[in-house]
Amino acid sequence: MAQPHWAAAQLAGVEKMTRSVAVLGGGVGGLAAAHYLCRLGQPSRVVVVEASHRLGGWVSSTTYPDQVVFEHGPRTLRVTGNAGMNTLALAEDLGLADQVRGISSSHPSARNRMLMTLMMQVGGKLHKLPNSLKALFTKKPPFSKPLVASAVRDLMASKVINEDESLFSFVNRRFGPEVAKYAIDAMSRGIFAGNARELSVKSFARRLHDVEQKHGSVLLGLLKDRKNAAKTDSNLETRELVKRAKREKWSVWSVAGGLENFVKALEKNILENNVDIWKNVPVKRIVRNGEKLVLQTDKKDLEVDQVISCLPSNIMSSVIQPLSPKLSTLLSSIPYVTVGIVNLEYPGHLIEEPGFGYLVPSSEPNRVLGVIYDTCTFPQGDRTILTVMMGGYWFKEYFGNNPSHESLLDVAVSEVQQSLKIKIKPKRHHVEILRDCISQYVVGHSEVVCSARKLITDLKLPLALVGSSYDGVGVNDVIMSAKNAAFMENIFRGNYMFICYNLASLNPDIVRVRGVLLGEEFCVCRLSFDVMTNRRIGCCSPAIMTSIGGPNCSP
Ligand SMILES: Cc1cc2nc3c(=O)[nH]c(=O)nc-3n(C[C@H](O)[C@H](O)[C@H](O)COP(=O)(O)OP(=O)(O)OC[C@H]3O[C@@H](n4cnc5c(N)ncnc54)[C@H](O)[C@@H]3O)c2cc1C
Ligand SMILES: C=CC1=C(C)c2cc3[nH]c(cc4nc(cc5[nH]c(cc1n2)c(C)c5CCC(=O)O)C(CCC(=O)O)=C4C)c(C)c3C=C
């Protein structure tokens, strides 16, 4: 094997003593971190500390006595990519294979992701996003030209060298104003509930940014750079549920009875592995005691060797303040937005044009971000269930600080009256204001995250930052970041000598050999045996090191 260009070797003595790890936050990130800590090695003492009376964080479903389910947070998980396959493998490990419900790419929910535009010149009605090759060559409102014209524009547009820019400005430059105004603007609302003019292209679509910087054109760059696209992990591809998802061409999936059942299965699993779960215990502060960290709560203190924080960055910012005001300031710079959600139930099947739902571009005079047609994707008998989502980046501007639930319900009901012509009253509803529920990866986000992790390394804090504030807002990304942090904890436990290679100096094929760590798989990582030191050697790419806060932190 080629020599490492630089090496961060951590050769701790093989420690037999029980290490203690505190996982802060019992959202899906915290529960996944606890699961992988148990799964990837000899379990340390693991304590999950959760502020509220329940686990799951934003993953939250209500099941009524008649078995009707309302989802209040995430409802579907992506299948694609290593992170997507990893969550499917996790569901299988949790014994959920029979309860997983996949939606094939030919299902109307996967094909029809509509854009809502109320502009009179385009008819004030719902428009389907192009979902076939033919549609790309056809002029369809709200676009004034066939979308293929935007592809041609990308091939012609000159490259602009920059570190980062907004999603809107990137797409406007490369694909034209209509793709930015309708498609990208709406998509940003359907993932971040955010403003495409402020979100970072580098954090959201890093590969698109990178191929432009390298090749000048995005589409040409993607074509030329195919071999550098993230390789799928062949270990994950052999998992039964992943194979089923591929065979049946799933695009998204959920769990019977609601996504909260995924969280319940995780909770059961970690309890079986003797993880302590403290509920109703908000962590107030973290202080240092020698090499250890002490969590201070109103009830009791907890001294541990390692902390994996799965708290939202704005909360972690105040928890870490006494230990590092600088880290606290960095974390406080990541903004959050609030979303109002209203679940509505109607008798009968009322959706004329089935689909996943629709998104409203910010150029429309509408306080609603979009509407999800829940029962088109997962039917629940003879009823229609819709979720209307509103506010987000614009919450305060549209609703003030503290709108009443009745006012949000009124907005939701009149929205579906107008857009879907549903004139009857809902039979049942649920209104919630999800305060600061989604972090905004604004321009410069990756630098902030990198600086925060570099500071942790410089201060030699036994602390990892995990969760939706840092490396991706989707559930899959959160689970992957939890897995990476658990992997690192295993390394710190002294089981491995760890070497991080500079990708540039190695044949990528060597680096991309998948590794096996105690039967677990990591895509850009390998393990081998060092005969000199009689130890297993783990190595991984700087990308993994960056995502888990290693020393070679280059965004
Ligand atoms: C409306 C909405 C729709 C979404 N839709 C999708 C979707 O369709 N697909 C998808 O993949 N993702 C979706 N997401 C994103 C997904 O829900 C999140 O990425 C994920 O749930 C975040 O998990 P987490 O564990 O990082 O954070 P959280 O869920 O925020 O968990 C953090 C936990 O920390 C606890 N906590 C807070 N303060 C303290 C403290 N001081 N001490 C101890 N504990 C504390 C909280 O109570 C919480 O349980 C959606 C999000 C929202 C809001
Ligand atoms: C079509 C209507 C949609 C509305 C309204 C909507 C609201 C909404 N979504 C989030 C956060 C996320 N959504 C995610 C995935 C996702 N959302 C929609 C549609 C709507 N979302 C679709 C079709 C999908 C699946 C996309 C796919 O990959 O196939 C995700 C996960 C993204 C990921 O990386 O996997 C998040 C996060 C919020 C906060 C929100 C509120 C307005």
Automatic annotation (TrEMBL):
It holds the Pfam family Amino_oxidase. Catalyzes the 6-electron oxidation of protoporphyrinogen-IX to form protoporphyrin-IX. It is found in: Mitochondrion inner membrane. GO terms for molecular function: oxygen-dependent protoporphyrinogen oxidase activity. Binds 1 FAD per subunit. Keywords: FAD, Flavoprotein, Heme biosynthesis, Oxidoreductase, Porphyrin biosynthesis. Gene3D superfamilies: FAD/NAD(P)-binding domain. GO terms for biological process: protoporphyrinogen IX biosynthetic process. This is Protoporphyrinogen oxidase. It catalyses: protoporphyrinogen IX + 3 O2 = protoporphyrin IX + 3 H2O2.
